[in-house]
Automatic annotation (TrEMBL):
This is N5-carboxyaminoimidazole ribonucleotide synthase. It holds the Pfam family PurK_C. Its EC number is 6.3.4.18. It comes from Bowmanella denitrificans. PROSITE patterns: ATP_GRASP.
Length: 379
């Protein structure tokens, strides 16, 4: 079988590696120039985009921000999974908010703003502690602004005045006080079967995911059920096929959807060692019409992102349960270079392993490892 992935980054690479044992040939499209490439070597393959689309048994994406003309080309083949509407929704916060409202799914109180003068009304409605997000092309902390008090509004309006808000509106959200951030990675098959990995607890730094812990500690059956119900409504509402990630804020016993990602997701990377079938293989199984694999977690697992740093001491592999996944990129500030998966029998053992790993990871680039290791060791 052949699967064509729009996007040629690390997620396409990991799908290629997951597909090889199944005999699934994964090719990737560099959407910047429409070259068809090998997802691991990045070597250009001797076929055109039209030929690759024709030869593929299934077409999918590794990220949401695909030029719409390319998505339409893929849609016309009848092979694009998930569908175009799901991908566009994940790429546009306004579409996403409208979907959540249509499905009556709880999310942060918000306003859509396409003119800076509307910000006064947004403050009147939501209060003066706000986060403003570009509706498109903003992620990992980019395309976001914060308002801490109304006195700062004139300066913020001056900053935003240079933007074309008619073209890219802002989603202005009430700053939410929450206990923690969680995510649910699951999948839906072509025949509508749903499977879920356990909820993961996510720790961020400067707007980027740094650590994911799975299963998330202290998740009641009711909380898990709430997350799975929201996922199910989204997947059904989008007629979704493939892996979908839903990010939540936990506020007491309630989950508020922060955003959705119509693809394999960073907070599911732990599944490469921590589950019988990883998210990359399960995505390929779903879009190819194969049976979905087991999603139960083996013990306790953590994923640690390596961001903007290439000085890893490979002696860290001495730590039992540690696995390094390197992406083969040149270093750049805030660029995801690799991730480390760490698995153990329980949270206490995982915390001890994280403390051992912290000896090899400078706190300046890995700000959560030591503290999270201590927290888990004390459980």
């Amino acid at each position: 079988m052949k699967v064509l992935i729009f996007g040629a980054g690390q997620l396409a690479r990991m799908m290629y590696l997951a597909g090889a044992p199944l005999g699934i040939d994964v090719q990737a499209v560099d959407v910047s120039n429409e070259d068809v490439v090998n997802p691991v070597t990045k070597d250009k393959l001797p076929l055109s985009l039209a030929e690759a689309l024709d030869a593929a048994d299934a077409i999918s994406v590794e990220f949401e921000h695909i030029p719409e003309a390319l998505l339409e080309q893929a849609r016309l083949t009848g092979k694009l999974l998930p569908g175009k509407e799901a991908i566009l929704t994940g790429a546009d916060r306004v579409r996403e908010k409208r979907l959540l409202e249509r499905l009556a799914i709880p999310n942060c109180a918000h306003r859509i703003v396409d003119n800076v003068e509307q910000l006064d009304q947004a403050v009147d409605a939501l209060g003066d502690k706000l986060i403003l997000k570009a509706s498109r092309d903003g992620y990992d902390g980019y395309g976001q602004w914060r308002l801490a008090e109304r006195e700062d509004l004139p300066a913020l309006k001056q900053t935003l005045a240079a933007l074309d808000l008619k073209k890219v509106p802002l989603v202005v959200e009430q700053m939410q006080q929450f206990e923690r951030e969680l995510s649910l990675v699951g999948m839906r098959s072509k025949d509508g079967q749903l499977k879920f990995y356990p909820l993961a607890e996510n720790l961020h730094h400067q707007g980027q995911l740094h650590v994911s812990l799975a299963p998330a500690p202290d998740c009641s059956d009711a909380l898990t059920g709430q997350a799975q119900d929201i996922f199910s409504r989204l997947a059904e509402g989008l007629d979704y096929v493939g892996v979908l990630a839903v990010e939540f804020f936990q506020v007491g016993d309630q989950l508020l959807v922060n955003e959705i990602a119509p693809r394999v997701h960073n907070s599911g990377h732990w599944s490469m060692q921590g589950a019988d079938t990883c998210q990359f293989e399960n995505h390929l199984r779903a879009v190819c019409g194969l049976p979905l694999g087991d999603t139960q977690a083996r013990g306790a697992n953590v994923m640690i992102n390596v961001i903007g740093y290439d000085g890893l001491d490979l002696e860290l592999l001495k730590v039992p349960g540690s696995h390094l996944h390197w992406y083969g990129k040149s270093v750049r500030v805030k660029r995801k270079m690799a991730h480390i998966n760490l698995s153990a029998g329980n949270y206490k053992q995982l915390g001890e392993a994280m403390l051992a790993l912290a000896d090899y990871l400078p706190a300046s680039h890995f700000p959560h490892v030591l503290g999270e290791g201590k927290r888990l060791q004390a459980r």
